[in-house]
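Session log. Operator J.P. requested a structure for one protein chain; no other inputs attached. Running the standard single-chain path with token output.
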Amino acid sequence: MIMITERAAEKVKELMAAEGDPSLSALRVAVEGGGCSGFQYALGFDSAPEDNDEAWEHHGVRVIVDRFSLPYLEGASVDYIDGLTGAGFQIENPNVVAACGCGSSFQAKDEVPAAALPDADDGCGTGCGCSH
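Structure written below.
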């Protein structure tokens, strides 16, 4: 299961209302291949879970995760940070063993060792300048 903090839930509700689409009623959290560390998070709004999804409700927000992403997100939490260094959603994930220096991608437990992944100079593609 993935949790969402009260602060993140309030921001999700605010952003969904700003979309002006009453069919959007859930936050979809997913893991996609990419970035210099192997995986990256994807957040978006959705209308309802599909057949291969799991869904929970926290603080009045329905959270949807597809079954591919679920093992990588088990025990994770989504928060919303608004500080001097910027604002945005932040995912705390106990399954992460290494992360990109810029925080845009991560390596999960039991994945390819970081040494086998390309360095930023070898076509990382994110432009973050991180190295492994």
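Operator note: The chain has one domain: 3-122.
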